[in-house]
């Protein structure tokens, strides 16, 4: 994945993974978005959007949520309406976190992406695919950022799709996912 330098309006981020084998606990992955102020783009997020929530202004929604990865195609889909966001909002970081703990993590003991088969992330604007990939480059991580949207000086939005892995549980990931690289 790489950077996209064009003004973006409405973007969809989709996540897929394969279900666990019969008799094993299900894999539960979630998409999370953190929204930062223009005045403090690397500070504390103003708010988080995840399963069961949406942005206060309705510009970020999670339309599909899966706790097992069962089904065809993408299991979770988040929509960001960047063109409707208030000018005070200048950065949005989107990540994926494994909700369920399980053996296998090199540091935390939590289940890493390497233990979840068939992961895939797709980012698109309308029918145009902006980025696609899997989470193999962060196989030992338990969470990862997959997209960063930045408001440009002229008001448009650009996209950085460099994947960054974390050894973190969902609560810790929410606190650290937007830290400066």
Structure in words:
The protein contains one helix and twelve strands, in the order ββββββββββββα. By secondary structure, the protein is mainly beta. β8 and β9 (128-133) form a beta hairpin.
Topology:
Layout: E1 3-4, E2 10-16, E3 29-37, E4 47-49, E5 60-64, E6 76-81, E7 89-98, E8 120-125, E9 128-133, E10 143-151, E11 157-160, E12 164-166, H1 170-176
Antiparallel strand pairs: 1-11, 2-6, 2-8, 3-4, 3-7, 5-6, 7-10, 8-9, 10-11, 10-12
In short:
The chain has 181 residues and is mainly beta. It is built from one helix and twelve strands; from the N terminus they run ββββββββββββα. The model is unreliable at 103-107 (pLDDT under 50).
Instruction: Using the CA coordinates, give the radius of gyration.
Output: 16 Å
In round numbers, the mean pLDDT is 86
What's the N-to-C terminus distance?
16 Å
Q: What are the low-pLDDT stretches, counting only 5+ consecutive residues below 50? A: 103-107
Helix/strand-derived category reads mainly beta
Strand content: 35-45%
Please give the count of helices. Answer: 1
Helix residue percentage: under 10%
Largest sheet: 7 strands, antiparallel
Overall outline: globular
How many β-strands, per DSSP?
A: 12
Q: What order do the helices and strands follow?
A: EEEEEEEEEEEEH
Note the main attributes of this structure:
181 residues, mainly beta, 1 helix, single chain, 5-stranded antiparallel beta sheet, globular, 7-stranded antiparallel beta sheet
């Amino acid at each position: 994945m790489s950077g996209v330098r064009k003004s973006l309006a409405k973007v969809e981020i989709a996540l897929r993974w394969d279900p666990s084998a019969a008799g094993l606990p299900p894999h539960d992955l979630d998409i999370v978005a953190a929204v930062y102020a223009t005045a403090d783009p690397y500070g504390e997020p103003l708010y988080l959007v995840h399963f069961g929530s949406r942005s206060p202004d309705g510009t970020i929604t999670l339309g599909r949520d899966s706790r097992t990865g069962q089904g065809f195609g993408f299991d979770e889909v988040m929509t960001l309406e960047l063109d409707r966001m208030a000018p005070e909002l200048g950065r949005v970081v989107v990540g994926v976190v494994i909700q369920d703990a399980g053996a296998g993590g090199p540091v935390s003991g939590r289940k890493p992406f390497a233990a979840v088969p068939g992961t895939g992330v797709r980012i698109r604007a309308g029918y145009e695919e902006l980025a696609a990939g899997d989470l193999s480059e962060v196989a030992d991580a338990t969470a990862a950022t997959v997209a960063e949207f930045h408001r440009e000086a002229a008001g448009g939005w650009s996209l950085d799709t460099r994947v960054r892995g974390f050894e973190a549980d969902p609560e810790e990931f929410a606190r650290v996912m937007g830290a400066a690289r």
